[in-house]
From TrEMBL, chain A:
Pfam families (alphabetical): Peptidase_S26
Positions of the catalytic residues: S38, K87
Family: Belongs to the peptidase S26 family. IMP2 subfamily.
One GO-annotated biological process of the protein: protein processing involved in protein targeting to mitochondrion
UniProt-listed SUPFAM superfamilies: LexA/Signal peptidase
Domain Peptidase S26: 16-100, 106-146
Lineage: Eukaryota, Viridiplantae, Streptophyta, Embryophyta, Tracheophyta
Gene Ontology CC annotations of this record: mitochondrial inner membrane peptidase complex
Cellular localisation: Mitochondrion inner membrane
Keywords tagged on the record: Hydrolase, Membrane, Mitochondrion, Mitochondrion inner membrane, Protease, Transmembrane, Transmembrane helix
CDD domains: S26_SPase_I (cd06530)
Protein name: Mitochondrial inner membrane protease subunit 2
Record keyword Hydrolase present: yes
Amino acid sequence: MGTKNILWNCSKKAFTFGLIGVTVSDRYGSVAAVRGASMSPTFNPSTSSLMDDYVFVDKYCLRDYRLSHGDVVVFSSLTNYKERHIKRIIGLPGDWIGIRHCSDVLRIPEGHCWVEGDNPASSMDSNTFGPVPLGLVAGRVTHIVWPPQRIGAVERKVPEERISSH
Amino acid sequence: MFGQWRSVAKEAVDRALIMAEFCCFLHVIPNYLCSSTIVHGPSMLPTLNLTGDVVIAEHVSHRLGKISRGDLVLVCSPQNPRKIVTKRVVGMEGDTVSFFLDPNFGDRYRTAVVPKGHVWIQGDNVYASNDSRYFGPVPYGLIQGKVFFRVWPPDSFGPLGKD
């Protein structure tokens, strides 16, 4: 009788904290692992390191979609809604962007953004799959939280020569 | 004396947790279970009225990948991420969809194949609907929920489903 009570109390507490955890991670911020080298040297600068970088993803910016050029964002993949990618926003709606490896220039449509990885040698980004609808953006990366020697804010960087804002 | 403070503190923490749990239910239920929406616009006539219909949408199916052809879905508009539109899924990935270039005039039509990870959405009212015929197939990740029931107006109270 006593153990049943304790078990019930424990599961109630676990349920409460789980609920609070889900709400906070959906509305305010969460931590995510960065896999792959498409954002070197900003994240995962060395392929020989055994551990992935962990970053803090801010969700509060999604209320009004307050995103600017140079923000690193997490977004759902266009080809598989269960996967998430982390890339940097290079262009916002209305900008004209020069596609890499191509002498084409493209105007980013309303409601979309152009994302690119910091490592042009190995990055599947908008140069491959085109502009990404802003509705797929799931958060903005603001800080690196692991490994300890690289804890710090993630800066905004924009390659000025490839984009022309309207 | 100290024991009194301890019991007051414990009760305060318990009450605070209940308040926090209530606030979290306010977030989790409309986002993960079901929510109600008011729909307006002519793009889903005659299925949904021009304005003022209240529908119930569930947010479970799209997370499990169970959206299929013919479902009424809530989708984050690809032209404006702050707007949520109600449309019907006409094609899933791999399907070939055909649509008239101008439904008012002429017979010319275009065919498109829906790419992997995308869906083709159309309003039931092809004459007044801004949908995939204009902005192309939308990624599955933009689907926010599936509409399955209408509660207002009272004479159309009942389930909504595939045609």
